[in-house]
C-alpha cells in the first residue's frame, strides 16, 4: 500500500528557547509543511510514501528534500526549478502570550509553478491513497487546478482521497476557500476538519471560536460532521480533534470520528504542550496509518488522537515517534515510568 | 508628552536553561534595571522617553546604552565616566527551588557619582512626567541627594512624579529605606507598592510575608493604600500587584488601584511564569502609559496588570510586547489561538 | 565521620532542550552514577566522602574523576586501567511522552574488573559508613563478589551499611537480583527501597506498578517495610519515596521511614519536575547526611525527601544544592520569594 | 554635517561556525545591507546619519530598524508597509572552498515600492552628503527612478553624492547595470569602485578577473580611475581597494585614491580574514568619515583602507570598531599587544 | 552503475570549537565511518550506492541509518540486531597540539556479528563496484571472513574491488594487518594507500614517518606503488595522497596515481585545514566517481585529490560538496570570489 | 615536594567565537588568575600544590574554588569572606584587531582583605616552593604587605621563591611597580620576566616595545637578565619568553634561560595562536615542574617554553595538557599525526 501526499514544504525558522524575534540572534532551522509532515509520519510508522511538490534548485531545496529522505519518504518524483523556498518564522508563546507565526511564503517556486508541470499519470503510479490539505489549493490558482486534476485522476482510478480542510486565514479568505473546497469535497473519501475549518471552508458551523471550550461544543461538532456526510455522500469518514486550550502550555484534547453514521470518541487527554503545531498533521497521519492497517473505528480514532497528542511533546513540525510510543499513550492515560 | 526615568542599569548575567551557577560555563548577557526597563517599555508602546543615569565609558557602558537606543529610548543626556557597570547574576529557580540573584553592583560608576553631576535644569527640559523607584536612592547617599534635587525640581515645575517604592533588602535596611522614602513620598503623585514595600519603606503594613496568599490579603493591602493617601495627601493614586505564588512557575496575579478614594481591581490571572523579574517595572510602565493616554481608572489598572503578566512570559528584564498584545490579554483570560 | 560509596560512574549524554535522539546534533555531557551522586551530595553538604570504583585511564576517565574532585569527593583510592567508560544516552520526555534512557555500559572497565583488584583493608581505612546500591552487584559476577567482600569487611569492623536496592531491569532479571540482594540484605543496616525495588530485589510486594497512585498505596508500602525488618533483623531503618506521577512534569512526592517499628511521614509535595532522575540518590544522601548529624527520625525523613524533591528541579545527575536550600524546602511548602 | 544613505536592508542568516547549509540546524540572524552598513559605521564613528528605505511592518522589519537605532542611525523617515524583508543565506567558505551566498530578496517590500513613495524634499532636510551604492538601482525599475530623483535633488541643492558602484551579478546583467550606472555617474561627486565594478557598471576595464593578483594590476586600475575622471568631470575622487586573495582566510589589501589627478596609495596589509563581506561598505564609510572631517588625501585613503581591513576581522555585516582602533591599524602594520 | 560499500558506521562525538575533553560540557554528534563516508560522497555526486553493515536496533542505529538515507544512500539491506553502536570521541588539535581520537568501538554490534549473517548473493544484486577499506577486516575475525567471502563473490562475478588499505594501529598490529591484507590484495582491482599504509599492511615501505615531508618522499612512494603492481598483478591502479603537514591547520597536498605503469600527479595544494579527517575517504569516493564516469587518468587523480582537499574545509566526516565545487578546485589553485 | 602559589582568581567572561562585546548576547564563563593557573598546571602535571587567596562566600567564589579542586589543587587554606569576586571581560581579537580585556577587579574581596588575615605559619606548613607574580602586590597596599610577609617567611625558612614579574599597567604605574618589585626581588630565587616587565618593574630595559621583533632583541634581553643577576645576587635563574608577534594568530616563540651565568635557548616555534593569554603562567608552571623534577637547564627551558606554546592552542586560562603532550612538542617541531 502506497500513499502519495501533495503540498508545499517550507523552511521554518524558530527563535530558540523562549526568545522573541525582537531580541533573538539565532533561529533554529527545520523544514516542514502539512503534507510533508504527514508523509514523514507515515514513513516513520513503516509505510511506503511518496511526496510530490516543487522545490527550488538550491541548497535550501536540497536540505528540504534531504529531510524527507532522512525519514524514509520517497522523493524521486519531486519537481525542481529556479525560485525560492517558502519560509516561515515561528515565535513560541508562553502562558497567556500567543504563539506567533510570520509567513514569508509568497513567490515560492511552488506558488509560481503551473498546474501542467505535474504529470499525474506518472506521479500516481502504484499509489493507493492520496492525501492533501486545504493549504495546497490556498497557494495559488494554479495549485487549485493541480488539486482538481489530481482529484479527478483519483476518482477515475478509484484512489481514495484523504483531505484535511486545514483553513489558513493568512492565505485566503473564507469566501475563496469555500468556493474551492466545496468543489474539492466532491472527490474526498475521508475528511478531516478542526475548529473553524468546518465553517471557513465549507460554511458549516461546528465551533463558536472560543478555544478554551472546544470540547464542550462536542454536539455542534457532531452536527457539522453529519452535515458533511449528508452534503457529500462520497465521504466515508469525518474525523476531528476537539480541544480546550487554557494556555500555551495547558490544554485538553479528544478525538471524534464519524463512520457509517456512528460516532467514536477518545477519552480526554490533559497535555502539557511543548509546541502546538503540526498536531493536526500527526492526527491525519495516524488516521491514515490506521486505515492502511485496517484498524477498527475505535482504534482508528484513538490511534490518531494519541499520535496527535504525542506531537505536542516534540519540537519541530515532525512527529518523531514510533508506533510503540503511540500505542503506549493510546493504552494508558498516565506516563509510563522511565525504564532503566 | 515626554517621560524621564532615572536609575541604574546593570549587566545581567543569567545561566542558560535551568543551570545552576555551580555547573554553568555560560552566561546570557543582557542589560536592565528598574527605571531603564520602564523607559524601554514606554518607548516600545510609542511614547517619548528619556533616560538619565551615569554609565562607564567602556564597551559595557556602550552596550547598555545601545540597548536603550535599540528600543527607542533617548539617551542623549546620559552622564559617562571612568568606572564599572553594576552587574548581577541571575539563576532561575524551578518548582520549589527559589530563583537566586547575586548582586555585584557595589562601586559602580553611578554609586561613585556625585549628586551635583546631574544638571536637572537641562535634564528636565520638555519633560512631562518623572519616574524613578526606591532602588535609585538605595544606591548611595549621593543618589539620595540627587533624587531629592530632582523631586524638588518637579515640585517647582509641576511635573508629576511616579514612584515605585521597590524595596531592596540587599541594598539597604528597612530603617534606612524608611528614613529616606518617607521624605520622598512628600513629592510623589502616583505611588506604586507591592508586598513588603509598604512596610519596609513606609512602615505601613499591607502584607504578612506569605507569598502564597497575597491575594487573600486584599483587605490589608487596601488599608495600607488608604493609609498612604491619608499620610501623603499629594498622592493621587496608589497601585499594587497582589500575588499568590505557588511555585516558581505557577502563580496568580491581580492588580489593585486606589484613585479618588475608590478601589479598582482586575480579575485574577493564572500565569505560567517564564521569568519572574521586572514584572513590577512592566506594571509601572503600563500604568504610566495609561496615564499618558488618559485611560480611565479601570482600564488603567487592567492595562498595567496585563502588561505585568505578559512580562512573566518573556526572558530578560525587558517587556518586549506591543500594545496589541497587552490589550489582547486585557480583553480575554484565555490565550488566543495561533493565527496562520 | 567519613563515608565510602562504591559503584560505577558513567558519561551521560543528554539531548539538549526537548530534542529527540533522532533529530539531535548535540549532546550535553556530564558524569554520574548512583553512588557517585550520593558521594557528591554528601560532599556538597560538607561531609567527608571517599568514592571507590575503577575508571579508564583516558580523558573520559579523568573527566569523570574531575567531576568528583570538583565537588569535594576524595578519589585517591580509585582504581584505573585500560578500558572504556560506561555511557548512557538520556532523552528527556515531555507530558505523556516518557523519558528514554539507552544504556551503553556493557564492557566498561568496571564490568571487566576482578573483585580482587579492590583491597578493602586499605579502602576502608577511617571509613565510618558504607553506601552502595543494587546497581553495583548488577554490573557483573565479579562486582557481586566485590560487594560481598566489602559487606563482610563492614560486618567484621562494625561499619554500618546503607543500601539502596535500586533495581535496574535493563541490567539483570528480578530472579538474578533476588538471588543476590537477599544475600546482601543480611549485612545491611539502613535499607532504601522505592516502588518495584521491594518486589524485584527481595520478592516483597509494596507497589502495584501504577505510577500515578504510589502515594495511595502507602499501606502496602508500610507492610513491605515491616516485612523487611522482620526478615532482616539487622536492618535498623527502612526508607522509601512514594510518588504519584501524573506526567513527566507533574508529580507528588512524599517520604516514609520505618525506624524502631514506628513510621514517620513527610507531607506531600507537589513538584514541577525538571529532570526526573537521580532523585533517589539525593534521597539516600539526604538520609545519610541526617544520620551523620544525628537528626531525629522525623527530621531525617523530612530532610531526605526535601533533598530528593530539590533534585527534581536541577539538570544533571548531581543534586547541586546547599543545606540551607534543603532546609528551606523542608520548612515550607511554598517557594520563597526572590531575595534582592 | 549630516549624511543620508539610501538602500535595502536584509535579514542575513548565517550557518554557525563552519557548517554547510546541508548540515546545519541553526542560523545566526543579523540585519545588514550596503547602505545600512555605511550608515552604522558612520554613526559608530560619531557622525550624524539618516537612513532611508522601506521596511515591512512586521517584527522582522522592526528588528532591522532596531539594529540601525541601536548603533545610533536616525530612522525616523523610514517608510513602512505590508510585505516581506529581503533575506540572504550566508555560508562561509574555508581555504579553497568559496563562500556561498543565496539571495532570497525578490519580492521584498522595497522592490515592490514605487519611486513616488519617497518624498525627497522631506528626506533631504538638513542633509549634507548623500550615499548609495549600485545595489539600490539594481533592485527594481522603480528604485532606479528613485535614485535618479534623489540625484537630481542633490544636484539642484549642491549635496555631494558618494556612490559605490557595487556590481551584483545576481541582481542584474552587466548590460543593464551599464545602461543605468553610466547615467548615475553624471551626478556623482565621489566614486568608489572595486575589481569588476569598473567594467560591469561602466564598461571601463580595470581588472582581469584573477582575484589572486589584484594588487599586481595596479596600473590598469589607475588607468580605469583616470578614465572615469575623464569621462565624468563631475567626479572629484575615485577610490578603490586592490586585493590579492589567496584563500578564504588569507589575502593582501591595499587602497588607491585618485584626487586632483594625483594617486595616493596605502601600504599592503596582510590579513587573516574572519568574514570577507561588507569590507567595501566599511571602506566607503571610512572614506566618507575622512571627508566629513577634512582629512588630507593620504590620510583619507589610509583611514578608509584601515577601516576596511578591520571589518575583515569581525563577524556580521557591521564594522563594529572605534575610530581609535582604525587609527591604530592605520599607524602600525603589526597588531598591538594585549593591554592589561 | 551501482556501487556497494561495506564497513562500520560510528557515532562521532566531537568537542565544540576548540575545547578539550577535560573542559567540555557538550559534544557535537554525527555519524560516520570510512565506507559510509565513501557511500555518502558517491551519492552526493549523483551515483547509485548501497551500504552494507550491521546496526543496532535502537535510536542511535536509526540515527546512523537516517544519515545515510538523508544523503541518498540505499540502506535497504542493512542488518540490524541487539547491541551497541561503536563510538569515537574527537578532540580537534590546534597548531602544534595534535588532534586526539578516543576509540570506543569495542563490542559493537558489527564486531559481534557473524560472517554468515551477510548473504552476499542478495547483497551484491545489481552491484557493479565493491568498495571497502582495511578498517573492516580490522574489526574482528568474523569480519575478516566476511571480507574474504565478499571478495570471492566479486572475483567469481567480475565485480571490480576498490580497497583503501587504511591502516588503524589502534585496531590491530601491523603484523596482523599484513597477514590479512596481503591476502585481500589478491582480489583487489584498485588499491588506495597513504603514508604508513604501504608498510603497515603490505610490508612495502613508501614513507619514512615524517609527516612534514611526505611530498618530498614522492620517489619512495612511486617505488612502493610499482612494488604493489608487481606483487599483485590483478591491481590495475594504485592511488595515493602525499602530504607535508606543518601544523594542524597548515599543510600541502598532492595526489599520485599509477595506471598502466604510468604515473599521474596533481599540482601541490596549500590547504588551511578545518578538520583533518575523512579526507582519504573523500579521495576514494572521488576516484571511484571518476572511474564510474570514465575520466582519463589525469582527470581521475586530479578530481580525487580535489575532492580530498575540499573535505579538509568541512566539519564532520562527510564531504558535503557538489561536483561543481570539486571541479572548481580542480581547475584553479586559488579560491573563486564570492558570487553575489 | 609541595608548591604554594598566592594570588587572585577572577571570573573571566569571554565573548563566544569572534564576537565583539557590542554585539554579543553570551559570555563564556571560566575562572582563572596567574597564580591559580600556575597551581592548576602543576597539579595537572602531577605535583602537590596548594593555592592561597581570599574568595567571596558566594556561588561565584565556590565556582572558582571548584575549578581549582577539579584539577587537583589543594584549597583547604583559602580564606573566605563577604565581598565580590574580581571579574574580567575578554574579547578575542583577530588578525590586525587586538585582543581586548576589560578589568572589573576593583573592590574584590582580596583587594579589601588585610595582610594580617593570612597566617603564613600555617599556610606554609610542608611547603617547599613559593610562587607568586607581580600581579599580587599590584592589587592593594595590603597585598604588598602580605607578599613581603610571605617573602620574609620564606627567607627565614629557606623556601625558594619563584616570582614572575608580570607587570600590569592597568593596575599600577611603572613607578609604583618599581618601588615594590625592586624590594621583592631581594627575596626571589627564580625570576621570570617578559617584554616590558624588565623595565616597568625593575627599571632594567630589555625590550624596545616592538612586539613584532622580540626575538630579534635577544641580546638586550640577555643583558637585562645579566643585570638582574648582578643586582640581585640571590637570584639563581632568570627565564624569559621572546616573541615575534605578527598578528593575533601568527607568532614565533622562543625561551631564554640564564643559569649559573650561562644562557640556554630553545629553538624558535611558529605558532598559530588560539588564545594568547596565560602563556606566561604555563611557562612558569613548566619551569617550576622542571625544577621540582631536577631537569637540567636545557631541558628546563625547553619544557617551559613547550608548555607555554601549547597553552596558546587552548581556550581558557588553564593549560589543560599532559606531560606527554608537552614532551612531544619539546621533542619535535612539527605536529604529530592523528593516531587512530
UniProtKB/TrEMBL annotation, chains A, B, C, D, E, F:
The protein's superkingdom reads Bacteria
Database matches in Gene3D superfamilies = 3.40.1190.20
State the Gene Ontology terms under molecular function.
Answer: kinase activity
- Lineage of source species: Bacteria, Bacillati, Bacillota, Bacilli, Lactobacillales
Write down the species: Streptococcus vicugnae
Annotated membrane-spanning segments are none
The record's comment on protein family reads:
Belongs to the carbohydrate kinase PfkB family.
**Where in this chain does the record put each Carbohydrate kinase PfkB domain?**
2-317
Which keywords fit this entry according to its UniProt record?
Answer: Kinase, Transferase
Protein name per the record? Sugar kinase
Q: InterPro entries, per this entry? A: Carb_kinase_PfkB-like (IPR052700), PfkB_dom (IPR011611), Ribokinase-like (IPR029056)
Amino acid at each position: 500500500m502506497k500513499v502519495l501526499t501533495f503540498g508545499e514544504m517550507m523552511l521554518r525558522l524558530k527563535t530558540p528557547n523562549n526568545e522573541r524575534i525582537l531580541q533573538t540572534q539565532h533561529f533554529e532551522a527545520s523544514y516542514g509543511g502539512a503534507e510533508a509532515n504527514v508523509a514523514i509520519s507515515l514513513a516513520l510508522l513503516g509505510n511506503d510514501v511518496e511526496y510530490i511538490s516543487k522545490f527550488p534548485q538550491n541548497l535550501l531545496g536540497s536540505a528540504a528534500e534531504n529531510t524527507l529522505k532522512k525519514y524514509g519518504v520517497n522523493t524521486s518524483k519531486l519537481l525542481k526549478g529556479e525560485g525560492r523556498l517558502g519560509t516561515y518564522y515561528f515565535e513560541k508563546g508562553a502562558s497567556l502570550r500567543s504563539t506567533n507565526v510570520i509567513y514569508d511564503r509568497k513567490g515560492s517556486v511552488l506558488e509560481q509553478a503551473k498546474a501542467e508541470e505535474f504529470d499525474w499519470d506518472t506521479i500516481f503510479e502504484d499509489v493507493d491513497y492520496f492525501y492533501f490539505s486545504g493549504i495546497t489549493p490556498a497557494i495559488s490558482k494554479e495549485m487549485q487546478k493541480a488539486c482538481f486534476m489530481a482529484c479527478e485522476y483519483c476518482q477515475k482510478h478509484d484512489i481514495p482521497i484523504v483531505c484535511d480542510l486545514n483553513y489558513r486565514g493568512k492565505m485566503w479568505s473564507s469566501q475563496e476557500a469555500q468556493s474551492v473546497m466545496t468543489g474539492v469535497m466532491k472527490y474526498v473519501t475521508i475528511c478531516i476538519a478542526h475548529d473553524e475549518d468546518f465553517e471557513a471552508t465549507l460554511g458549516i458551523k461546528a465551533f463558536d471560536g472560543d478555544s478554551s471550550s472546544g470540547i464542550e461544543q462536542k454536539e455542534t461538532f457532531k452536527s457539522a460532521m453529519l452535515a458533511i456526510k449528508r452534503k457529500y455522500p462520497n465521504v466515508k469518514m469525518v474525523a476531528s480533534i476537539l480541544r480546550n486550550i487554557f494556555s500555551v502550555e495547558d490544554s485538553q484534547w479528544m478525538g471524534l470520528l464519524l463512520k457509517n453514521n456512528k460516532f467514536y470518541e477518545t477519552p480526554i487527554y490533559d497535555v502539557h504542550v511543548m509546541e502546538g503545531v503540526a498536531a493536526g498533521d500527526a492526527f491525519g497521519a495516524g488516521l491514515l496509518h490506521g486505515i492502511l492497517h485496517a484498524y477498527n473505528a475505535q482504534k482508528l480514532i484513538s490511534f490518531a488522537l494519541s499520535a496527535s497528542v504525542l506531537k505536542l511533546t516534540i519540537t519541530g513540525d515532525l512527529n518523531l515517534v514510533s508506533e510503540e510510543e503511540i500505542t503506549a499513550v493510546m493504552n494508558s492515560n498516565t506516563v509510563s515510568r522511565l525504564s532503566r
